[in-house]
Fold this sequence. Notes:
Layout: H1 2-6, H2 15-36, E1 47-58, E2 65-74, E3 79-81, E4 88-90, E5 94-98, H3 105-117, E6 125-130, H4 134-141, E7 149-154, H5 156-164, H6 170-184, H7 188-201, H8 205-220, H9 228-233, H10 244-252, H11 265-279, H12 283-295
Parallel strand pairs: 1-6, 6-7
Antiparallel strand pairs: 1-2, 2-5, 3-4
Amino acid sequence: MFDTFSGKHRGINNHDRIKSVSESLGQSLYEIRQEERKLLAVEAADEIILNVDGGHVKTIEEGRSIEAMASVVYRPENIVYNDKGTRRHLENKSCAASVKNDNQEEIIAGTIAAALQQGLTRETNITALCDGASNCWNIVNAFEPMCKSLTRILDWFHITMKMENISLPEKLKAKFKRVKWHLWRGRLDRALLRLEQLKSITTNSTAIKRITQFITYITNNEDKIVNYSNRKKEGLVFTSNLTGSTVETLINQRCKGKQHMRWSRDGLNPILQLRASIHSKGEWDQKWKMAVLNAA
């Protein structure tokens, strides 16, 4: 790719050179985005969907890991269905990512820029889905004065993932399914009752601990639990499964789960800017030449 972009053979494309160019390119893309925030002119959107997630990455700095944040913004009309009306994908989305330790300033600014690219105005309704972590909701909350309405939903995908991590004896699994049934219909009080009953009849200390943690999780997000069943019937978004692969690529690819990979914030952040640009509809095609020239 570097040979092609340069228009001539490059004698050195070793690890250090690629690392240097990638970091410079990512920083250049970030600076271009900063300048463009005032120039965005996109058709106003009636509604946009906002997904925010995070992931911990192994670090060479102090501590065992650092947290990278990523957000994906899109319009509901950009969801494309196949002929059977089942499998879906997004034909247009805007992304932002950051690992900076800056009180979330960069990820908030980048997410706002991504929303503007999707047509955010003060008349836009926003539906935000998160995994329930406070740092994710902090990013969402920044949109409160910028839109007509802001609906916060605890992501159904993350609810089910946390439930799968609770291992119970076979005789209790049927009762545990009733918890999921109630949550699917937004019946938090009944779900909590079932969970307390499960705690009282199991003797497995690990299961009790995880049930207690799950109770805390849904209680902390009780005002964001909705009737997921109704939303699905009405064709409304209730889960982040459409953007899960994008977040996976932005944060996790070659960053998480690889024992030999260690990152610094300064080293990883330009990579995140590069990935966010590539995964945002049309952005890489429009900017890569300028970014490469600026990074040269």
